[in-house]
Write a structure and sequence with these properties.
Two copies of one chain form a homodimer.
Chain A lengths: L5 E6 L8 H9 L4 E6 L14 H6 L4 E4 L10 H12 L3 E4 L9 H10 L3 E3 L18 E7 L6 H14 L3 E5 L3 H7 L13 H8 L7 E5 L11 H11 L3 E6 L17 H15 L4 E7 L6 H15 L3 E2 L1 H4 L2 H8 L2
Parallel strand pairs in A: 1-2, 1-3, 3-4, 4-5, 6-8, 6-9, 7-8, 9-10, 10-11
Helix pairs in contact in A: 1-6, 3-4, 5-12, 7-8, 8-9
């Protein structure tokens, strides 16, 4: 559990895209985002108050979150002074970079001296169990994609927001670095040892109130040969009551695999649903989430209408429309 | 690569079952099994020459293999004298125990002093790549099970033997501890980090002669919720040209999961084949391997005949009959 509120460190991010992690925190957990800290030359601006370490600390900030992905994932020397000063002031640090905080001797030393915690969210810190497959109380929903990176995390976060608006009980369950930094906890599933993948998802989504929904962040795709095993572990460890199909309609081949075409939404449904029913025979497909970012508004709406008709399921773009119709489909289950 | 030939250390194995790993090496790689070393009270006997460390070393033994699974997977003090003496004589050590050789300070020290290698085959020693999905030359066959522990490794080893007898080119590709100790190399798949599972299988089964078969050791089951992700990574990383369905007909529920029933062989076929065709559209199911150990001879033969008729595929028990018919099915592909 990463302590909030956060001061978001944007460093010397060359452009807004490099600060995507910080932007996700600002968008989805605005209460956790007290302010931003930028170095000279920073090309990103989240529209949050610019604060020094001391100002944010005085305002209650607990953790300095590295909200920027720099080239190569390394912790630059330009950042070191800030990170060490933060530890000296009593901050914890949190990072999703490949280059781990814990591998930097000076940061480790400063953390030890000042009692701070270094959160490397890429690295599992729990000894997860092997999955036992026992039916858990409460309900769970998972987005499965025709491909990787089609908007599953965004869909899950938008669904969580829509369910809360409606007074439904829901919890977003992060399974990736960005999701973990946004919510402060979760399982970095792609870094878990094979034997414990499904068990880590069971651990992440324990027994809950009968009317509570865990919204599990999806990963990979059953049709993406590099990561499909992670996806199946999510389906079997998560034992979802509901699946959402996620798709990006303009993609010409599977991400990173030029020789692989995307499956149809029907093929995804017909593959994912029987596998999900191994763990939860009551599982249903409740809707389709389409990332229409590459389309104009009219084209996007036509695309959504066509998919809705073809699939016989609500089809929405959560970025354009919010995920209200998916929340209602879950409420009606 | 673990250097051969081996001296097989049976320690104080209470019964033959505890020496299953050593028995697998004797059965499948007899050329590698120079002799056995037993401590007082050992209840296992492989029928190999009993040899002292010095005798086996003089006869050319290179590695002392811990061929016994003791309770709790720990390296007992009763073994330590032997293991250290072996290192002093120039042996390497190999082990599949949970308790790693490398975590024992005295073994590490002796290995360093005498230049020996400690092979903990449970631990990956390679930085595997992320799978790239590129079509590789050569052919591959994989056994997929209705459940875990239904005889997939035995099937693969028997198939390898049958193919060699027929002059076909084949290589058994180990993905588990026992298989790695039997053949001296492989990938301990259940210990690989999630993101690299499929890539480790690609690494294990590289480009090869067009008429060469990799016989990939199966793991888990698509229907076993604890391990299904590992199985799908094998299917997508292995890009098999042929699948064999493996089954144990008397099992009443999935191994370790009392609330889960086994799928039918047809359900297994209809689930595994479309998934395999994502990575290799030409993949075929070529036969069924049935573990009939719990049945009498007549009952076993009736069971095999019934499955053969129902599935329209050769159905054999490799333990009773060898895997010749499966080898022929592959040759006919």
């Amino acid at each position: 559990m990463i302590e909030t509120p956060y001061l978001l460190f944007l460093g010397d991010a060359p452009d807004p895209l490099a600060a995507k992690v910080a932007q996700g925190i600002r968008d989805w957990r605005p209460d956790s985002a007290l302010g931003q800290l930028r170095l000279p030359g920073c090309g990103a601006d989240l529209g949050l108050p610019d604060m020094s370490l001391a100002e944010a600390r005085a305002a209650g900030a607990r953790t300095l979150v590295i909200g920027v992905a720099n080239r190569g994932g390394v912790i630059s020397t330009a950042w070191k002074d800030v990170l060490i000063a933060a530890l000296e002031m009593g901050y914890d640090l949190a990072s999703g970079l490949h280059n781990l905080l814990r591998d930097e001797g000076d940061l480790v030393a400063a953390a030890q001296t000042h009692g701070g915690t270094l959160h490397d969210v890429r690295v599992p810190t729990v000894g997860y169990p092997i999955a036992n497959g026992r039916k858990r109380s409460g309900k769970r929903v998972l987005a499965v994609g025709t491909d990787c990176s089609v908007g599953k995390m965004y869909t899950a976060l938008a669904l969580d927001a829509a369910m809360r608006e409606r007074g439904m009980k829901s919890t977003f369950r992060a399974t990736g670095q960005t999701g973990i930094l946004i919510t402060g906890h979760g399982v970095p599933l792609d870094a878990v040892i094979a034997d414990f993948m499904a068990g880590s998802v069971e651990y992440l989504t324990p027994d809950n109130d009968p009317d509570h929904w865990d919204i599990i962040e999806g990963q990979g795709s059953l049709f993406h040969v590099s990561y499909s095993g992670v996806t199946l572990a999510l389906i079997h460890g998560g034992q979802p009551d509901a699946l959402i199909l996620s798709h990006e309609p303009t993609r010409t081949h599977m991400r990173g695999l030029p020789d692989y075409t995307l499956p149809s939404l029907k093929a995804l449904r017909d593959t994912a649903l029987p596998l999900a029913r191994v763990a939860n025979p009551a599982c249903q497909v409740v809707g389709v989430s389409v990332n229409t970012k590459a389309l104009g508004e009219d084209e996007a709406l036509r695309c959504l209408a066509e998919i809705e008709k073809r699939m016989g399921l609500p089809a929405i773009d959560p970025f354009r429309q919010g995920a209200g119709r998916l929340a209602e489909a879950l409420a009606a289950l």
